[in-house]
C-alpha cells in the first residue's frame, strides 16, 4: 500500500529555524504588520500607547490591533479562540512575535478603543486616496440591519406590556373570586396557602410590569430591550423584525472601498443622507461629484441642503401619488405649478390656490371647489374638491429624482450592496458578539477596516501595498 506519509514527530527540525520564515514574502499578513507599524497610535488615542515608568508593562496596542485585523479577515471574532490561535497558529505567532495575550485583554482592547479604531479607518481611506484607489466621482450610500447580541424575546413594547397587565388582572380576579367563594361555602379542598402565594407573585409581577410601562411613557419610548437597551427592534427586509442596529456605508464606486461608515440606532434611513454624505466629503477632502442613494433616503430638507453645497444628489422620490395605481385619474404631474401666483393649474384650466400648510408633513396644500361641475371630473376625482400637495423642498426632490436615472441606480446597487454581504460574512453572519452601541461600533469599525484592507490588497497586490507603506 502506497500512501503519503507525514514527517516523523521525532524529527528535530519540524519548523523553519527562524520565525521570519513562518510566512512567505507575499503573504497578506505582512501588509497588516506594515500598515499598523506606519500608524501613530498615540495621536489616534489608543489606550496604553504611552506607558508609565512604573507598574506592569502592558501589551502594545499595535500588536492587539494587528491581531484583530487578522482575526476579522479570517472570520474569527471570538476572543477565546484568538487566545488559542496565539499559541498554535504559525501566522499569528509571526504577527504577534510569539506574544500570547489572554482573552480578557483582547476583549478589553476592542471595547476601549472604538473611537481610535475609527480614526484608523479614516487614515486608511486617506492612504487609499493617495494611492489612487478612490475617485469620488460617484459615492453610493445605503444601510443594512445587523443583529445585536441580545435576543428578540427580550424586547418589550407598550402594547405588549398593556396586554400582559390585562391578563394578570384577569388571573388576580380569578384567584380572588376563588378565595371569596371558599369563604362563603366553606370549601375544604382549596389550598388557601398556595392561592395566597400565587396572588403575591402575580401582584409583584404586575408591579414590575407597571414600572416598566411607566418608564417607557416617561421616556417617550415605544420599546426597550431588557438586556441591551441600546438595541432597537427594526424591520429588516426578508428577516422581518430583528433586534439590532442600522449600519450605514458610503462607498466609492472606483474599487468599492468604504470611505465613511456609521452604526446607528435609527429604524430607517430617512435621516441619514446628509450626515453620511458630509462624512464621505470630509474623508475624501471634498472630492465628491455625485451622491447616490435609494428611495429610503428621500428627505427634502437634507437633499436641499446638499444641493446648496453643489452636490449632485441622485435619490428617487418616495412619495405617494394621487393616481392610486389605477391609471384612471390625473397625476400630480398633470398639474402645472405657477410660482408667481403660488397656485396650480389643473388639466381643465382652473386654478387651485394655496389653502393651508401641513407642518408635520412639510407640505403646502392647494385645492378648489366646484369639481363636480367640471367635464373632466371622471378623470380627476370623485369628490367636489381636488387637493394637490407641494413639498416645502419640492424643487430639490424633483431634481434629485430626475438625477436618479436607472443607469445610476444600477451602479448604486453594484457599488454599495456587495459591501454589506462581505461585512456580514466577516462579522459573525451579521450578528454582533458584544453588547451595547459602543462595543458593536468597535466591531463594525474593525470589520470595515479589514474589508478595505482586503479590497486594497486585491487591487494592487501585497508587494504594491508594501511598497507604498514603506
TrEMBL record:
InterPro entries: IS1182_transpos, Tnp_DDE_dom, Transposase_InsH_N
Domain Transposase InsH N-terminal: 18-111
Every Transposase DDE domain range: 346-455
Coiled-coil intervals, chain numbering: 158-219
Keywords, in A-Z order: Coiled coil
Keyword Iron-sulfur: no
NCBIfam families cross-referenced by the UniProt entry: transpos_IS1182
Name listed for the protein in its UniProt record: IS1182 family transposase
Organism per entry: Saccharospirillum mangrovi
